Q: What sequence folds into this?
């Protein structure tokens, strides 16, 4: 597994701390602060990749996308947005950035009703309570049906998957967060492992796969090790968000990595058992004592905790794998001696 973190597109304190924690892989968004060029154009991507390389970090994933709401809604400007998206993928390939994490959540991305829920020791986490949204007004898009979104996703994939194949960029589709529908009249279609499977089967390709977001799928009631095995068996798991939650899709809160509903050690054992070697990052973390919560889920101290915890799990899984291999070797040697 390539342990990664989500970084700003320009150097900050986390870049140096990451190297001190022996993190060598980066996930980043687009560099929206470029002055004269769009951030999905070739040179901004090349410059961003080189900034990471000059700091000893490999840019493994872009977790961002050009404007795409018209694509998702199927409105008049979608073909223009798709053309931009296609060029973005081509430019990623030319810049040597191998994975794109994208989503198909219309109108709004990941959605929470609170970013100040108290958890262990008074740390702050984000949470969602669907009862607070039942009478919320529709967005300006009005009612957006599941059928519309499935049709629009199919149309979109038909246009971008062949481009990704040519560019050799892996498309890692993220599930809808929270996995519940509708929210303010807007349907959410990628709410389960089965839905993700249906999505990537729309246009089959070695480059059409998923981001396995443990937190979202655990919220949906999925058994994470089983989901890992399912998608790894098809070589469709391109990127991992290694995080956890407590609750259900109706009402949940995010947690420290060691305090949620998932058996995280079993999950890590499973990643090693299936031979997953792609990038994984901690994702949403609690805001801890002394932090402002200006960036909920992405303050610093919780990341340090999450990285340390994940590194411990990785070491445990690696040692277990080595011991298993040694046991097999010893058994084979003993059998050979017995036969002789």
A:
């Amino acid at each position: 597994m390539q342990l990664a973190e989500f970084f700003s597109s320009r150097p900050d304190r986390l870049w140096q701390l990451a190297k001190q924690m022996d993190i060598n892989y980066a996930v980043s968004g687009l560099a929206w602060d470029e002055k004269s060029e769009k951030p999905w154009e070739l040179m901004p991507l090349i410059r961003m990749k080189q900034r990471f390389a000059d700091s000893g970090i490999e840019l493994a994933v872009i977790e961002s996308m050009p404007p795409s709401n018209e694509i998702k809604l199927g409105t008049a400007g979608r073909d223009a947005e798709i053309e931009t998206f296609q060029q973005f993928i081509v430019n990623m390939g030319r810049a040597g950035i191998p994975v794109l994490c994208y989503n198909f959540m219309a109108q709004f991305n990941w959605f929470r009703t609170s970013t100040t829920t108290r958890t262990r020791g008074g740390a702050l986490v984000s949470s969602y309570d669907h009862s607070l949204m039942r009478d919320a007004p529709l967005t300006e898009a009005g009612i957006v049906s599941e059928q519309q979104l499935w049709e629009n996703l199919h149309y979109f994939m038909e246009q971008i998957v062949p481009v990704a194949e040519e560019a050799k960029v892996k498309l890692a589709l993220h599930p809808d967060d929270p996995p519940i529908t509708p929210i303010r009249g807007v349907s959410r279609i990628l709410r389960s492992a089965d839905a993700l499977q249906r999505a990537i089967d729309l246009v089959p390709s070695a480059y059409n796969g998923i981001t396995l977001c443990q937190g979202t799928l655990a919220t949906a009631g999925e058994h994470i090790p089983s989901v890992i095995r399912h998608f790894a068996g098809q070589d469709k798991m391109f990127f991992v968000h290694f995080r956890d939650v407590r609750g259900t899709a109706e009402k949940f809160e995010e947690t420290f990595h060691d305090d949620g509903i998932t058996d995280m050690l079993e999950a890590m054992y499973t990643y090693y058992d299936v031979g997953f070697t792609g990038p994984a990052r901690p994702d949403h973390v609690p805001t801890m004592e002394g932090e402002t919560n200006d960036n909920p889920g992405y303050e610093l101290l919780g990341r340090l905790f999450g990285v340390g915890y994940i590194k411990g799990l990785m070491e445990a899984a690696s040692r277990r794998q080595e011991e298993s291999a040694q046991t097999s070797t010893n058994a084979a040697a003993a059998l050979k001696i017995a036969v002789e």
Remarks:
- Residues 301-339 form the longest helix (39 residues).
